[in-house]
Write a structure and sequence with these properties.
CATH architecture: Beta Barrel
Number of domains: 1
Number of helices: 7
Strand content: over 45%
Helix content: under 10%
Length: 728
């Protein structure tokens, strides 16, 4: 809290200085779509207007329109995303730098980067994706790139929005925000509530499979008089709070059961529930001196969650298939009748289901300083960030008998003593970067340098009361004490008014504290852009050469053997390359109707370059494909917009094939699949419009993922949503 006091003190001292008309209450990395086209590297911006076309609440669907971004779906709503940029391992988005308004949002970016928390996409006003050499300013994960989610900004003038949606399966979403704006002060209050009964059914139970998720955001901006010359000062305070209760599970379906009903769940998962809460407070101070701008951000994130869910099936080992979820599903896929009977509740003898309170609390706080000096032909940016984060685990088991398709009463186990379920992992890190962009007329050159220092340590306790640390077991234990530095270079050449060539190279790395070496990779990209009044085209070739790749053991990932959550495993050298294409144009009829068309395509070739055996990766032979990474991804969109305010759009999404494990053994393949969505909007005036969205029009039921735990999972079925937007 001392950091926050410092920012407030500085701001009060300087608040009444003179000003220019500047406001950067929402921290952007790129800026506008036009700014993205000028970056010496690959960058994409999704605007608020584009988000309103489908009003997607699934970040996976939103990012399907960004080249080079892949993902692994999970529960159909995007509550816990698995995002990859240019082939980084997607599990829990743990190798992508994730931010909201420029602030790191992973629960503990160094101690435990797996993003069980992700901002509610329905309240987000824009998305920025940065790849290539410019991404080294946005660590710590610099191999693939960075995603910055832009929250609803304080409006330019007083006003707001009421957005009410209703849909199938008892779905309701209400998004409200209002800004009150004066010359030297403004505030915003925002609420987003979202709930549904869910589209899956649980065998033998009438329990819901949906969720309730509520967000509130409050912002306050104080600034010096923007009408006066001189130094401009601005203080932004942001508070965000969210809560979620979702009846989600880690247990997927065996293939035979998936073919019977892709949207059913086994009755043994009826008790599964995720309960979490998130709170963020941030202070951002800006001083703009004209050519020189200073920004200081101090933030504090707290996230707590308990995913109470099935951990072991047939824990008393009555049938001998093993008690892991993977073991039982694999046995059922292999035709073992007793394994299928357990899953479907027709087992002749009672088996014990072991459930686990995956109870964890996270903290992340930091100070982020940035100094930018800009002249007519150059822009120099220097940044420094100091962070501390932690993960606290105190996880208790419970047990219930499973017979005749019913779960018996639960018995709660004892509190953990010395074990991996009773531990605290802490991390401290500092980062420094310097980036210089120089303009030589038609040629723009970007040079960047970044360094990171981090320490990760872990305490394990001897008893539930945490009266002492288990020193006889080697704790406190230093998991990592490392530093790394990298360079980046980018260049853009203006061939003429419409055509631009660009090239970039940067070193990337991913920190780790779980036993493996940090990831290191050389990243190359080259591309061409074409832009005129009606059309835009971009083609990019990228190549990532890993000196070392690692996988981190999580309960959700594709580990093939037994591993302790948090441990990481080297995979050695790997190669990823591909092409990204974007084509956009707009035609118009004599009547004034506009017809926008767009295509976004990514082709990826990703493979291991060595042969090895691993508890995480399994038995890997050089040349095997990296798992959970589709070989292609396509989004084709066509629409119309009339002068009377009627607007429609249809998008065809196609995703290539992949496997959930490197060996692509039986029961792990994921075939290519496609989805078609459509929307229709009628604007009555500047204030009021109504819309309808239909997702998965053809009601496809393909396997889209086999994780967590290698059970088959389907995409969201055909669903209708209607909504009303009223602008105050």
């Amino acid at each position: 809290m001392n950091r926050f006091a410092l920012v407030i003190t500085i701001s009060i001292m300087t608040f009444f200085s003179f000003a220019e008309d500047v406001s950067i209450e929402v921290v952007e990395i790129i800026g506008s779509q036009e700014d993205a086209k000028e970056i010496a590297g690959s960058a994409s911006v999704i605007t608020e207007e584009e988000l309103e076309v489908y009003e997607y609440t699934d970040i996976h669907k939103i990012l399907s329109n960004v080249p080079g971004v892949n993902f692994r779906p999970e529960e159909g709503y995007g509550l816990r995303p698995n995002i990859s940029i240019r082939g980084t391992y997607a599990d829990r988005s743990g190798k992508v730098t994730l931010m909201e308004d420029g602030v790191l949002i992973a629960p503990a970016p160094y101690a435990s980067s797996s993003a069980y928390y992700f901002p509610t996409a329905g309240r987000i006003a824009g998305v920025e994706v940065l790849k290539g050499p410019a991404a080294i300013t946005q660590g710590p994960y610099t191999v693939g790139g960075a995603i910055n989610l832009l929250s609803t900004p304080i409006a330019d003038e007083s006003g707001g929005l009421i957005n009410q949606e209703l849909g199938q399966d008892g779905t309701s979403r209400t998004h409200l925000h209002y800004s009150a704006v004066d010359t030297q002060a403004a505030f915003l209050v925002e609420s987003h509530t979202w709930d549904t009964d869910g589209f899956d059914s649980i065998k033998g139970s009438d329990a819901d499979t949906g969720f309730d998720k509520d967000d509130i955001v409050v912002k306050l901006r104080l600034n010096s008089d923007p009408s006066l010359d001189g130094v401009y000062h601005e203080l932004n305070i942001k508070y965000q709070d969210s809560d979620e209760s979702s009846d989600q599970t880690y247990v997927g379906l065996a293939d035979a059961d998936f073919r019977k009903d892709a949207h059913s769940r086994y009755g043994l998962s009826a008790y599964d529930n995720m309960d979490n809460s998130h709170e963020t407070t941030s202070f951002n101070y800006v001083a703009d001196f004209g050519n020189l701008e200073l920004s200081a951000t101090m933030y504090d994130n707290d996230f707590a969650r308990n995913w109470f869910k099935v951990d072991k099936i047939d824990n008393n080992k009555v049938y001998g298939h093993g008690n892991g979820i993977n073991n039982i599903i694999a046995a059922a896929n292999a035709g073992e009748a007793t394994a299928s009977a357990i899953l479907n509740g027709t087992n002749a003898e009672a088996v014990e289901i072991k459930l686990k309170n995956n109870n964890r609390a996270y903290t992340s706080e930091g100070t982020d300083l940035k100094l930018q000096y800009t002249t007519d032909n150059q822009s120099l940016t220097i940044g420094y960030r100091d962070t501390e984060d932690s993960e606290d685990r105190f996880q208790v088991y419970a047990y219930a008998d499973w017979l005749n398709g019913q779960l018996g009463a639960m018995t709660v186990g004892s509190d953990p003593g010395y074990s991996s379920n009773n531990r605290v992992t802490k991390a401290q890190a500092t980062a420094f970067y310097i980036n210089e962009e120089i303009n030589f007329g038609a040629l723009t050159v970007n040079l960047g340098y970044r360094s990171e220092d981090w320490e990760i340590s872990q305490d394990r306790y001897v008893d539930a009361a945490r009266s002492a640390i288990a020193t006889d077991k080697g704790y406190p234990k230093q998991l990592s004490d490392s530093d790394n530095s990298l360079m980046g270079f980018g260049a853009t050449y203006e061939v003429n008014d419409t055509t631009q060539l660009f090239f970039g190279f940067h070193e990337g790395f991913t920190p780790t504290g779980g036993g493996a070496d940090p990831e290191q990779a050389d990243n190359l990209e080259m591309g061409v852009r074409y832009s005129d009044d009606n059309s835009y085209f971009e083609a990019v070739y990228f190549d990532t050469d890993y000196q070392n790749m690692f996988g981190e053991c999580t309960a959700s990932g594709g580990a093939t053997g037994s591993c302790e959550i948090g441990d990481s495993f080297n995979a050695g050298e790997a190669s990823i390359s591909g092409f990204e294409l974007v084509a956009q144009t707009e035609m118009a009829s004599d009547s004034g109707t506009k017809y926008p068309l767009s295509m976004v395509y990514t082709s990826t070739d990703a493979s291991f370059d060595n042969t090895f055996d691993s508890d995480f990766w399994g038995s890997v032979t050089s040349g095997m494909d990296i798992p959970d990474l589709p070989d292609s991804q396509l989004a084709l969109q066509a629409g119309f917009e009339t002068q009377s305010g009627l607007r429609g759009s249809a998008t065809y999404y196609a995703y290539g094939s992949t496997c959930s494990v490197a060996s692509c053994a039986a029961g792990t393949s994921i075939d290519s699949y496609n989805v078609i969505d459509a929307s229709l909007t009628k604007m009555f005036n500047d204030q009021l419009d109504v819309y309808m969205v239909v997702e998965n029009i053809t009601d496809e039921t393909d396997v889209v993922a086999r994780a967590p735990k290698n059970g088959a999972r389907a995409q969201k079925p055909r669903s209708f949503t209607v909504g009303v937007r009223y602008r105050l």
